[in-house]
Design brief:
The structure is a single chain. The protein is an alpha+beta fold. It has 8 helices and 16 strands. It has a domain of about 230 residues: L-amino peptidase D-ALA esterase/amidase, CATH 3.60.70. The strands form 4 sheets. Strands 3, 5, 10, 11, 12, 13 and 14 form a 7-stranded mixed beta sheet that branches. Strands 1-2-6-7-4 form a 5-stranded mixed beta sheet. The protein has a two-stranded antiparallel sheet with strand order 8-9. It is globular.
Length: about 375
């Protein structure tokens, strides 16, 4: 009976989140434009055809503030049609299930799941359940699960995420606009001392560079010396904040998906550039930070069949000297996705009465105007 009651509360809070999504504002809504490349239609990871994102958000009582975010790289059976992939570790103080097989084989065979630190095992178990249910003759599954630690706001030791929550996030996955801020795996996260969360952005290359799209989704839970578009926000708003010990620990999960036909080697090169986007916001991948980038190519022609009559894979792969525009797109989209996670997030009170404020938007806009970094005709 208690569990049923809690789930009813959860549904209530999820409905609030969905209803309020239309009112969420992002960095560009305030005239903050990052980089020089154009965004996709939704400025989201779902601008890559077939990519879907789903959340399960757990806001229960006064202490449970956590959730699950699922990223599906294509609408088919991912185990049967695996996706070229690579993982880059900016700093490895974290947990990323499935890393070694991705490194060895260069592909993924499940959706990508993000959650909290202590829910990696149950999320892995759920991905195994999901894959076995889809495939009768499968006896080995490599689940891909990343995490950040939301233990300041969330009663993380209770391990409240269930297999059902993970499977629901997969079931909820959809194309189009993506909910950001205090949702899914970003429900209880903190970034630069403000409320962080889920953020996303995209970039579309000019036709001369192939017209490819890059999409980024981030789970922000890290610190540093905060900047926006080169403006030293922390220095202006919190001049004494970093005179002593640096509040830089935490983690950031970054998922990069492109429709460009890339092999795992060039996907790893692409993943490295996401760390440059993180650095442009003031993150430093500190000693106590788990900063992981999962990069995928959703190009239909390069999906890898689980089995077939031929012993060869026929692929079309982008040349090395065509990668630079994609590098730029990844840096820009990662920077903006991190900012969107902050601008969309709202003040939250959680475990033991801990409160994390949202960004002081008015002060930030005044500071951005001072540095002439607001686009007035956006």
């Amino acid at each position: 009976m208690i569990r049923i009651t809690l789930r009813l509360v959860l549904v209530f809070f999820m409905s609030i989140s969905i209803d309020s999504y239309a009112q969420q504002k992002r960095a560009r809504d305030y005239g903050i434009e990052i980089g020089v490349l154009k965004t996709g239609q939704n400025n989201a990871i779902t601008d890559i055809e077939g990519v879907r994102v789903g959340h399960t958000t757990l806001i229960i009582g006064d202490s449970i503030r956590t959730g699950v975010t699922a990223i599906l790289p294509h609408p088919g059976n991912i185990f049967d049609f695996k996706v070229p992939a690579a993982v880059y570790i900016g700093n490895g103080y974290g947990k990323l299930a499935g890393y070694s097989q991705v490194k060895e084989l260069g592909n993924i065979e499940t959706p990508v799941i993000l959650t909290n630190t202590l829910s990696v095992p149950v999320a892995s178990d759920a991905l195994i359940t999901y894959t076995l249910n889809q495939n009768e003759n499968v006896y080995s599954v490599n689940p891909i699960v990343g995490e950040t630690n939301d233990g300041w706001l969330n009663e993380i030791r209770g391990r409240h995420v269930t297999q059902e929550d993970v499977l629901k996030a997969i079931q909820n996955a959809k194309e189009g606009p993506v909910e950001e801020g205090n949702v899914g795996a970003g429900t209880g996260t903190i970034c630069f001392g403000y409320k962080g969360g889920i953020g996303t952005a995209s970039r579309v290359l000019p036709k001369a560079d192939g017209g490819y799209t890059i999409g980024i989704l981030v789970q922000t839970n890290f610190g540093g010396v905060f900047e926006i578009n080169g403006v030293p926000i922390d220095k202006e708003l919190n001049p004494s904040k970093h005179k002593g010990l640096y509040d830089v620990d935490g983690s950031c999960m970054m998922v990069v998906i492109t429709d460009a036909p890339l092999n795992s080697r060039n996907l790893e090169r692409l993943a490295k550039r996401a760390m440059m986007g993180l650095a442009k916001t003031g993150g430093i991948a500190s000693n106590g930070s788990g900063d992981y980038v999962i990069a995928l190519s959703a190009a239909k022609e390069n999906l890898i069949p689980n089995s077939g009559d031929s012993m060869f894979n026929t692929k079309k792969e982008l040349r090395n000297d065509a990668m630079s525009p994609l590098f730029l797109a990844t840096i820009e989209a990662t920077e903006e996705a991190i900012l969107n996670s902050l601008f969309a997030a709202e003040t939250m009170v959680g475990r033991d009465g801990h409160e994390i404020k949202s960004l002081p938007i008015d002060e930030i806009i005044r500071t951005m105007k001072k540095y002439n970094k607001i686009v007035t005709d956006h």
